[in-house]
Amino acid sequence: MNCSVVIDCFPESVRHYREGYAVIGIDVIRATTTAVTAVALGRRCFPVPSIEMAVPLAARLDHPLLVGELGGNMPYGFDMNNSPAEMAHRNDIMRPMILLSSSGTQLIHNAKDCDAAYVACFRNHSATVAHLVGRHRHVAVIGAGTRGEFREEDQMCCAWIAEGLVRAGYIAEDDRTREVMEQWSGAPVDACTTGKSAEYLRKSGQTRDLDFILAHVDDLDSAFMVKHDEVVRIPVSE
Prior knowledge:
This protein has 238 residues and is α/β, with parallel strands linked by helices. 35% of the residues lie in helices and 20% in strands.
């Protein structure tokens, strides 16, 4: 039977792929990049959809690092913003991270009860494809979305993963998937910097994160899977 891939957007879309699909959550700016960066460095990562879920989890973990933003603002009592650049330079990797974001961690939380759930970003898009092929017949690549929009950087990452799967023999399930793939096929990574997410980082003085994201493309050889509410690293063999 044919293998297939579909591109979709927003946390609530996960319900369409509860059974029979591996779901890939994408929030390039910034939640999945922060999560992948942290776990690649050896830090444990627990994404949560709300502060209400973060608080009791923090009480169960040993000296956790509270990381995140809601509406662009770091919640009261948190240790740092949702910043992959800052995460990459921290040396307290023994502290488990609780990660909260406006939409990305909601997407990850919604996907954790699917047949399989992964997180991806520019850093591991090719490794994610390599891991999926031969393991999952049907794949849904879902962008987190921000303020009701399927942002450019998420479209690009979704398209790269879907295109990789199509090259491996998967079939695009619908016209939207084909259109997104065609739009971003062969595009340079900085093509996403004209979008609103990149504009927000520039206006808010957070260009370090934008620079980090653009400078770290396909530099990790691992897939990152959600198991028991935690993002775990799965090295991909050559």
